[in-house]
Specification:
This protein is mainly α and 343 residues long. The chain has 18 helices and no strands.
């Protein structure tokens, strides 16, 4: 289950990298906030950046108010005064974190690589650079970055987890399982490791092992200060595949208690209601899923099928047309060669 939407920003990386950093800043369009914004924390305190008092106050206020463009411009302009200095490295590294928070993943990668060309990145920035590569759809670069971190810190379960995630995304489920078994030895309370184990076993056609790991994830999840809806969603999908529809429905309602704005939970709830023949009841959660995410195609397709069963042919056609429109808009353009940004 792919949870990271790629942004296809690296179509002509060689051209972008040949321009100045300021040019890249102007050309990069805004995208949505990252769904894992906790990964991006600023690597340097403002007091270590060599800013005067007014600049420091401006930077801190801009970040506090989420006015990231102001912070980005200030940091980049200051770095470009002496772009090869240690101070510039700190400024570029901090700018990388701000760009990431702003959803500007290409710019964040460029900033961090500029900083790294001067001085090694700190561990936090190195990790978030890998996250930026994932956001950009460059799992190959993310893997290189994560392998370096895992080699340096072999007892850090987080890095092993993300290598397993990359294996999972590449459909290497057996390799992912082997890594995850190491992860849970290092961190027996990592909820998402058990959840991902469940997904891997699901794809390998081992539902019993999948359900066992989802239930372990759910048990640990209840103890979190902010429980994730995903273990319940993933378990529900697995239960649907083995026709345990009532239990699947219960898990989806629990997921929505944890996150009442999760489109995937509404979509899966619509699915399970439709599978039980409760077509009219299925309409509302599917409409909710579509309303929460205008780029989510699947709810429209299922709505079209349900409306057809209900004899609402006009509505059915409208939903299928919307499904086709979204699918067309999401077709990835063919990519040309790309420069090796990470070195």
């Amino acid at each position: 289950m792919e949870r990271y939407r790629t942004t296809a920003r690296l179509l002509v990386m060689s051209t972008i990298l040949s321009t100045s950093f300021s040019s890249a800043l102007q050309s990069q369009s805004s995208s949505s906030q990252p769904d894992d914004s906790s990964f991006a924390t600023l690597s340097h305190d403002a007091s270590s950046l060599g800013l005067n008092s007014s600049q420091r106050e401006e930077l801190e206020q801009a970040i506090r108010k989420h006015e990231y463009k102001l912070a980005e411009q200030l940091l980049v302009d200051e770095a470009n005064h002496d772009p090869n200095s240690i101070r510039a490295a700190r400024l570029f590294e901090t700018a990388g974190g701000v760009f990431f928070l702003d959803g500007q993943y290409l710019n964040s990668a460029i900033a961090w690589k500029k900083a790294e060309a001067i001085a090694p990145l700190d561990e936090r920035s190195s990790f978030t650079l890998a996250m930026a590569y994932i956001k950009l759809g460059r799992q190959d670069w993310a893997r290189q970055q994560m392998e370096r971190l895992a080699t340096a810190k072999p007892n850090n379960g987080l890095y092993a987890y993300w290598l397993a995630r990359l294996d999972y995304d590449a459909h290497n489920y057996t390799s992912a399982i082997a890594r995850l078994q190491t992860v849970v030895k290092l961190d027996a309370k990592m909820v998402r490791a058990y959840d991902l184990l469940g997904l891997c076993y699901d794809y390998l056609g081992q539902p019993d092992a999948a359900v066992k790991n989802y239930n372990l994830a759910i048990q640990l999840n209840r103890l979190q200060s902010k429980p994730s809806p995903w273990p319940h969603v993933d378990l529900a999908v697995s239960l649907m595949s083995i026709d345990q529809l009532g239990e699947a429905e219960e898990n989806l309602h629990q997921a929505l208690k944890y996150d009442p704005l999760l489109p995937q939970a509404y979509y899966q709830l619509g699915r399970v209601l439709e599978m039980q023949g409760r077509h009219k009841e299925a309409v509302q959660p599917l409409q909710q899923a579509a309303a929460l995410d205008s780029s989510y195609a699947e709810p429209h397709y299922l709505l079209g099928r349900i409306y057809q069963k209900l004899g609402e042919n006009g509505l059915a056609k409208s939903e299928v047309d919307r499904f086709k429109e979204i699918e067309k808009n999401q077709e990835k353009p063919a990519t040309t060669g790309s420069n090796a940004l990470p070195k």
